[in-house]
Automatic annotation (TrEMBL):
Pfam families, sorted: ABC_tran
GO terms, molecular function: ATP binding; ATP hydrolysis activity
Organism listed in the record: Ramlibacter agri
Family assignment from sequence similarity: Belongs to the ABC transporter superfamily.
Keywords: ATP-binding, Cell membrane, Membrane, Nucleotide-binding, Transport
Cross-referenced SMART domains: AAA
UniProt name for this protein: ABC transporter ATP-binding protein
Top-rank taxon: Bacteria
UniProt-listed CDD domains: ABC_NrtD_SsuB_transporters
Domain ABC transporter: 5-239
Amino acid sequence: MTSAIRMRDVEMNFSGGRDGSSYLALRNVNLEIREGEFFCLLGPSGCGKTSLLNLIAGFVTPTRGKVESRGAAVAHPGKDRGVVFQSDRALFDWLTVEENVSFGPRMRGEPQAQWRPVVDEMLELVGLADHRRKLPRELSGGMKQRVQIARVLANSPDILLMDEPFAALDAYTRGVMQKEVTRIWDASRRTVVFVTHDIAEAIWLADRIGIMTRGPGSHIRQVFEVDLPRPRERMTTGFVELFNRLSEAIDAEAGHSAKAPLQ
Ligand SMILES: Nc1ncnc2c1ncn2[C@@H]1O[C@H](COP(=O)(O)OP(=O)(O)OP(=O)(O)O)[C@@H](O)[C@H]1O
């Protein structure tokens, strides 16, 4: 079976610092993400999670090695890979919810008869059908992130790339959005690559969790299977045991206790 994403001996060396310096963010990254799976990338702050996601998105090219999406080399961003950013500033604040969600198909010149049913379906899927005429400033943080998700899904990507999309939300909304995103993933069956530094969030969401080593020269240290039935319960033995194993792996990387209490 073709992998959704395959990275082979990938290196990312950022050069051209203002003082002429360079920084080797990633080295020897080898990673295979399966079709339809929910994969979380977890690692200490600054290890290179966003850099890795940006390579898959095609925003940057590796200084060495190969990145493939469904067997084809990734050379630039493409509509097969949709990105949901942490910040809701990614929305066009002068466009309504519906105009934001239909932006991609309209820019590609698709006729309304073609994009309308897709946009309607995505607005239903993220629970915003009744808010389609609102502007982003009239929405809560969680609603804005749902608009971003709907906008990306309206482009029918094969792969959804999410970079700490709920980091700016309060704990309650974050919990709601974690449930939402599993429901949307379940309904749309896209491959998802989700960056987080929150261990419990990763266990709640993922089929597999890739732990990254501390930089410089970060790579995938270990991949954990999350063999727990959904919906997951945070206080079950399986959840807590995996939480502790992941905490130990991350602590070993961060060089100190990164373990926040399980909530
Ligand atoms: N364009 C760039 N030029 C130079 N260095 C960069 C660039 N982008 C990232 N880096 C460096 O690469 C390293 C990894 O950054 P990255 O943002 O990928 O980490 P991260 O794991 O996503 O961090 P966090 O969890 O704090 O968001 C950092 O040391 C960062 O300073």
